[in-house]
Specification:
This protein is of the alpha+beta class and about 100 residues long. The chain is built from one helix and five strands, in the order H-E-E-E-E-E.
Length: about 100
């Protein structure tokens, strides 16, 4: 194997690892900053949904150095077995639980 090919393989491996690490960090950000956990309940258009997927690639850096909320997709909470998740975009808020 030529030196150039070897360097390319090492760099590609490092790039893929960095991309995986970045994705995991963005998922952690979604969990801790936006409260998005597995099967989180969000409200969009007055309907409560169970989140099935989070698109971390949709997050953008803000001028303040934070990230925008991600696009999510989910199923209505009252029909969780619905076949196709509905894209909700960024038009959602975490369901608030009233604590008495």
């Amino acid at each position: 194997m030529e030196y150039g090919e070897s360097v390319q393989k090492v760099l590609l491996r490092k790039i893929r690892k960095a991309e995986q690490d970045l994705m995991q960090l963005k998922m952690d950000y979604c969990r801790f900053v936006f409260g998005l956990t597995h099967r989180a309940r969000v409200v969009s258009g007055g309907i409560t949904y169970l989140v099935l997927s989070v698109d971390v690639e949709s997050m953008a850096s803000t001028e303040e150095g934070a990230y925008t909320r991600p696009c999510v997709a989910g199923v209505p909470a009252d029909k969780p077995d619905q076949a196709e998740p509905i894209p909700l975009g960024t038009n959602w808020v975490l369901e608030q639980h009233n604590k008495h």
